[in-house]
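Dock iron/sulfur cluster; give full complex structure.
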Amino acid sequence: MPRLRSVLPHRAPEVLAGASAWRQSAACAGLLDNTMFPENSDTAGIEIARRFCAMCPVWEECLADAVVEEGGKAKDNRYGIRAGLTPYQRHGLHARNRKPQADA
Ligand code: SF4
């Protein structure tokens, strides 16, 4: 079975949901390769993907959509760099947001 990232070119995360207006302004919009889907061990590829996110004017919207779309998915069921974060980092973000605040 082909890996997900080998069959889904990254055209911002619009492949995951209906197109939102913000996606048209994404720095990664129009990429037709796997730039935004580096292997977890590909540190150079991750850095290249993050450079797109670093100059992206809609990274906040991207992160908000990633949080909603990925929900509580496991680390290995998250794909690509989104809002400058790796799948593992987004999983960690989700886990931290779920923890009750001790001092609240
Ligand atoms: S923040 Fe990164 S992944 Fe998200 S739309 Fe922008 S360039 Fe693409």
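Observed: Confidence is low (pLDDT under 50) at residues 1-9.
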